[in-house]
Amino acid sequence: MPSPFPGMNPYLEQDECWQDFHQSIIPLVRALLAEQVRPAYFVKVEEHLFIHELSAEERRLLGRADVSLAARQASAPAHAAAAILDASSYARLPVAVDIEQHSYLEIRDRRSRELITVIELLSPSNKRLGPDREQYLGKRLQFLHSSVHLVEIDLLRGGPRLPVDELEECDYYALVSRWQDRPRTAVWPIRLRDPLPILPIPLRAPDPNARLDLQAVLHRLYDEAGYADYIYTGTPQPPLSAEDDAWARSLVPAR
Q: Does 76 fall in a domain?
C-alpha cells in the first residue's frame, strides 16, 4: 500500500526512521535514473562522512599500558645511549567516534567520467548549526562555482533552512540549479499537504532531462520498507501544529 499522505509523510522524519529512509531512497533513485540515462551516463552512489567525537560517557578508552619503558640491559655498552626514562605521567586516548554516512548521487559522463549532476537529499546533520552544516555548505559552494548541475531536496521540517534567497514559506523544498542559469535556480516550495513534485534532472546539452517523480519514489519505498508496520507508534518530529496534527492522525491507518 502507498503512503496515506498526499505528499511527504511527516512520520518518516522521526530520528529512528529518517536514516533508514535516507539510505534506502538513494539507491532506489539511482536505479530509476540509471535506466533513463544509460548508456551515455552512469549514476554512482557516493557518501559524505561526518565524524563526531563522542562525549566522555560514550567513549571507549584505551587504558594505561601494564609495562613501562625499561632502561637498556646492564650489558649494553656504557657509551651506547643515555638511559631511557619513564614518562612523567600517563593519559588516555579516545578510540571511538560516531561516524555518520550520508549518501548522495552523481551522474557522470560514461566516456570522460566528467561529473555532470549531483543529487543531494538533505539530512539533519546538513541542517543543524555546527561543523557538519559548514562542511556541507562548503561542498555545496564548490558545486555552485563549477559547471556541475545541483539538485537539492529537503524533506525535513526540522532544523534551520539552508540559504536559498527568495524562497517562499514552505515545509519542504526541492531545487534544480543548472550551472548555466546561476545564480537563478528553479525551486519547488512544498507544503505538508502538497504532493511531491516531478523534478527534471539536467544532463549535458542537448540531451533531454531525466525525470524524478518524488511522490512515486516515496510510495514505492514506503511499501517495500514496510514503514506502515512501525512508524506510527511515534510522533512527527518536530511536532505538527494542532490543525495539521489532527489532519495527519485522520490519515494514519488503524492498527
A: no
